[in-house]
Amino acid sequence: MSELAATPVVVTKPDGGSVQVLIDGSVPVEGTRTTSTDTTLAAILETVFTVFDPDRTLDPGLGKPFAILPRNLAPQSVPPSIQDYLRQLTVCANAAAAALACGSILAGHTSEADEYGDISFWLGEGEYDNGHELEVLQSLALRGRIAENVGLKEVKMSTKTGLPTTVNVPTNASAEVAALIGLLRRMSAIRVFCLRGELSVYVLVGRYSTGGTSGWCGLLGLGVQS
User: Fold this and answer.
1) Is-contact 173 180, C-beta < 8 A?
2) Which of 22, 210, 219 has its CA nearest to residue 104?
3) The predicted structure's pLDDT at residue 173
4) Which of 204, 209, 208 is nearest to 120 (CA)?
5) 21, 91, 139, 168: which has the fewest C-beta neighbours closer than 10 Å?
6) What is the pLDDT of residues 33-43, one digit of tens each?
């Protein structure tokens, strides 16, 4: 991906919190401001709209959203190699979820909904290791959701696949699932946690390094449990 292919768009929540959405404008997108004929894009947009942009100000016609950045992080500080990894992470997470017949690879088969897709994020350097989940949420403008949910819950990871145990992976994993597993193995110190509620927010976070740049990144998804 070229440096100019990704366009940052700021979206603001009703509580005043805001993030940047990185848009891949290199591929034309069919659809309108509120809908899309691309089911994967529609699922990713639904997550972005629900979590960050309930007024649906983000125009799908700009391109495909592939990552979330904190509001105070300069997009220019995210090199093309990192942008490309984030794009692959979003694409492969949603492809793997589709191959396993679930909406989110993080919420997996525990979710009763399939309309929400997963989207990657980049936090950069900071204290985001184990025990600093609140800092992760703060950077993603999500800390306010804690009051709306039961609380933070750890999601266990499978020692065999490296994926959350919320998703049932067959012995012979598909190419889509294998591709995601390969991408996740390039990260270190991975963990998954969620904010449980009627609409649960799932966060996978870990460290990634490439080309002299390192930082914390991951995936964000939604799940519905009755």
Assistant:
1) no
2) 219
3) 84
4) 204
5) 168
6) 444 457 889 99
Evaluated on CA atoms 151, 157, 163, 168, the torsion sign reads: negative
Q: Length of the chain, please?
A: 226
Amino acid identity, residue 196?
R
Asked if the model's pLDDT at residue 45 lies above 60, the reply is: yes
Confidence band of 55 (pLDDT split at 50, 70, 90): very high
* CB-facing half-sphere around the CA of 85: CA atoms within 13 A: 24
Would you state the structure tokens that stand for residue 169, as one six-digit string? Answer: 């992976």
Count of CB atoms situated within 10 Å of the CB of 126: 15
In whole angstroms, what is the distance from residue 221 CA to residue 27 CA? 23
Percent of residues, the chain, with pLDDT higher than 90: 69
CA separation for the pair 41, 185 (Å, rounded): 25
Q: What is the strand order of the sheet 188-196 is part of?
A: 6-12, 18-24, 64-70, 119-124, 213-224, 199-210, 188-196, 151-155
The predicted structure's pLDDT at residue 126: 94
pLDDT at 120 > cutoff 50: yes
